[in-house]
Amino acid sequence: MFRHISKLTASKLKFSSVNDRDTAYTNPRMIESWIKETQIGFDALLNDQFILAEDIFLDKQDQFDCKTSKSPFHAFGYAFLTYTKAMLALERKEIEKTAECISKVEGFLKQKLNKNKTRNSMIKIAMNKGNLPTSCSMPSDITELVQDRLRHHLELLQANVVLMSATLQFLLNKWTDTIKAGYDLYRSFRIYEHLFESMVGVKLSEYETSISLNQQKVATFRHSDGLLSDTLCYGAFFGIGLFHLFFSLLPTKVAKILNNLGFQPSRTIAVHLLNQSCKNETMYASLSSLVLLTFYTNVSAYIQPQINRFFSFQDATCALEFLKHKHPNGRIWQLIEGQLKTQTNCLDQSLMLFNQAKRPVGDQVIPSLMYDQETTPIRSQSVIEFNQFRVFVIYEIGWVHIYTGDYAKATETFFWLESMCNWSRLFYHYISTCCMIADGLYDKAILEIKQIRELFQQKRKTSSRLSSHEHYAESKVQSWLDVSESQAISLRETLEHHIINPVWELVYLWNGTRHLQHKVLVDIKRRFQTCHPKDPVLCLVMGVIYRDIHQDIELAMECLNLALLVEAHWTFPYAMYEIAVTYCTQQQKRSDIQIIVSDWIQCIERHYQQHSQDTEWEARMQIKCQLLLESYCLEKSI
């Protein structure tokens, strides 16, 4: 008998000890306060208050030493802050340092999960034996619900951290890292899926099917206890939506691995779930809006806005206004608003916004490196201090100068960009050279062409990988040299009389033809009228101009069919694609248009199968065709 009393007493004392140390983890008010503070930290980050955000996240944790008083939500917030900085720096050392930090946070969360499971087991044992300590003031059923909620929150935070880790591994660009990243994506998705089904009470696959049948489908929670359940459910929505979007942009080799595991990305599902996550007041609302805006601005490089049925321009404008109202000091909104102004061809306004976005805060001097002379990290105050953000802004400014035909400023801007970037530098050098050709500075352009060729040779000798953009630039420069050699003419004569203005091709491939201003349009039309026989590049560009700017479908189809006459040219599959897009703009039966579009895309796929050396499929055309097909399978935007 004494032995049983001894065991009972030991169990009670052990539970009391754990409970005394971890009372915060059984107190729903404390957990809610952690969530609210973390949300304030995210708000500060999006409001361009980096130091405030860092102070908030560091207040509850210290190097993740796993003390029981530490908040897992603040730890996740700090991991997200360091992840944001790494993505804005895009320097290998910073990425590796951040990956190490995120790994520590993941270990911290795992320990908290293990302690939570132990605590739950001890609570159940104590409840079954009627020995729940008097220090537990809440009813036993509420205590168990809180512990289940906390466990789910820890799993959600862990999934978020694993997803961040996976994206960093892709950036490290090693095969082993890529495989591990694919596996980590699989793990994170399974956690999101489990949480979704636990909260909503239906299988994710069933919910996704219901979206296709009923676009007004809204999730209803199995249990709702305010902030705890809302943050959990909408966090799962955010994670699954982000996963689908990220999956759709993965390298082909990784996407195939995940396809074999049964994953099929759906941008429709992604946009729906992220929209659901936006319509709440949890810490995932603003993040979901930001992801949707980023998706819209990026996808606009591959599909025309008028046939983008995933997320419309009006949706993007509403999301931006919401974020500007909630985080009025955010510099990133100036960048995104400038991009949206470019979409509507308000180029003067977009240029003004881009210049405001890159302007230093007050009299602040932006450091080229975020370290002082003693290599002590300088605490970043604003997003403008990060090189990558300035690169984004300057890149947009360069394209605006091209659209308006101000090639001198465009040349200067892209040379400036080349000096700032750690990747695709030769591509920016190439754009500047194209602007020189467009500006009639042929002798200067020749010097740059020779330098570009030497730089490519040097890069290949060092076994450095070329980006897809750099591959494109190298092939174009080589084609000019080949024309000069094969026709036994000078390079200057080649540039002046034997090639089409390379800027027009660039603008078309980067989906910017509809933004060209009057001065540039006049030059293109003049060249088109005097060009005999008709150059397929000019036919392609003029077809898009007639369709998207002049709304003349008949002339557009005439030009695009002319481009189809030259099969042995990169423009051939693009002409087929533009014809498919043109049908999408017509007032015809939707079922008829779907058949026509599918047929043309099948022709494009067959062309690239027969011309496997053409890299345009993986560089651009594959995602353009996917977006067109997926968009036109929808009855209307959701």
Keywords:
638 residues; mainly alpha; globular; TPR-like_helical_dom_sf; Tetratricopeptide repeat protein 39C; IML2/TPR_39
Please write out the topology.
Blueprint: H1 2-21, H2 28-46, H3 50-58, H4 72-89, H5 92-128, H6 140-172, H7 175-200, H8 204-213, H9 227-248, H10 252-260, H11 267-278, H12 285-299, H13 313-326, H14 331-343, H15 347-357, H16 387-404, H17 407-420, H18 425-438, H19 442-461, H20 468-486, H21 491-498, H22 502-509, H23 518-530, H24 536-548, H25 553-563, H26 571-584, H27 590-610, H28 616-631
Helix pairs in contact: 1-5, 2-3, 2-4, 3-4, 4-5, 4-6, 5-6, 6-7, 6-9, 7-9, 7-10, 9-11, 9-12, 11-12, 12-13, 13-14, 14-15, 14-16, 15-16, 16-17, 17-18, 18-19, 18-20, 20-21, 23-24, 24-25, 24-26, 25-26, 26-27, 27-28
Short description:
This protein is mostly helical. 72% of the residues lie in helices and 0% in strands.
State the end-to-end CA separation. 67 Å
Global Rg? 28 Å
Strand content: under 5%
Mean of pLDDT: 84
Order of helices and strands: HHHHHHHHHHHHHHHHHHHHHHHHHHHH
Q: Specify the structural class.
A: mainly alpha
The strand count comes to 0
Q: Please estimate the helix content.
A: over 70%
The tally of helices reads 28
